[in-house]
Amino acid sequence: MVIVKRLAVSTLFGSVSGVICYLGGKYGLKDDISTAMFFYILVNRAAIGFVIGISLLKMHWALYGLLIGLLVGIPFAAGCLFVRQLGLEYTLPKPRRA
Length: 98
Known about the structure:
Distance between the termini: 60 Å
Number of helices: 3
Mean pLDDT: 81
Oligomer: single chain
């Protein structure tokens, strides 16, 4: 049975982790990260936290984190790479000047 407190805490800390990852990319790596990419990072980390919260696997915490990170993180990373390979942008189109 899923414990609601565990689910809420893990999702919250996943979201906080997403904000930390965004700030690290924007200010640490000096990368230009759009608003859409910010939400992409936030949803990825929140999803990892959610999956950790609902999962009831019994294993060492480090192996458990690695497994969940790979299962949830790889589809998000692959999506990010494919979007960049296809030349699609994460940003909204800029308005044209008259």
